[in-house]
Automatic annotation (TrEMBL):
It catalyses: holo-[cytochrome c] = apo-[cytochrome c] + heme b. Lyase that catalyzes the covalent linking of the heme group to the cytochrome C apoprotein to produce the mature functional cytochrome. InterPro entries: Holocyt_c/c1_synthase. Belongs to the cytochrome c-type heme lyase family. Keywords: Heme, Iron, Lyase, Membrane, Metal-binding, Mitochondrion, Mitochondrion inner membrane. This is Holocytochrome c-type synthase.
Amino acid sequence: MGWFWADKPNHGTVDSNVAASVAPHGINSSNDIGRCPVMAGNSKMNKENPLLNPLNNMPNLSHEKHRDQKINLPKERTVSTIPKGTSDEYWEYPSPQQMYNAMIRKGKIDPNTGEEIPEDAVESMVHVHNFLNEGCWQEILEWEKPYTEKSHIEPKLLKFTGRPDQLSPKARWNYWMGQLFPNHYQGELPFDRHDWVVLRRNPEGKKEVRYVLDFYGGPDDADGLPTFNIDVRPALDSYENCRDRFIKYTKPIWDEYVSKK
């Protein structure tokens, strides 16, 4: 797990509720475009639904200003440090205007009243969204490090999807244990979940590796800024992933109690 602090925003303010609305890393999907973050791609549309991009399960987001929008929002998008699995390019984050339009689409913003999420908070939301996605990618790079050291080729992000209504087995287990042993387990449900599919290079060629990301809200820091606890790990859908998780989670115990003897 990694704790991430939202840097002080350049424009406006952002509280924990607003930050949670764009939750990281992560990435946005058509399932809940108001809850997940967005990283837009340029691939061909899903054949079953021509309006959806198969790499992120979301529609294209407009850069046009909403007719009832009161302030102008930037339309420039920031290029991430996350390489695309389908090209030599990098994923791009949504512009503040795209984020605003996404929030309206899911009813997170009422352009007539500005209720729930004010217009002047959108730029801060994008800032938090981008920051958390970068943190998620760094967590994945740590998991991938043993393979990268062998291949000398960095992994790439092939595709992703938001699954906010589907609890991962680990999140469900931690919640149940938290009800029984509140002093030892957090006992809170994540406010969001993403699945990221990473392209890994190995001697046999390219391999797709699915990662599960659970997002938890944390207490505000001393400056009143929101913090987030993001549990990033490979999915338990292959022998290799199970082995990697076992090694990573048991290594601290081994180093402390066995290797020192």
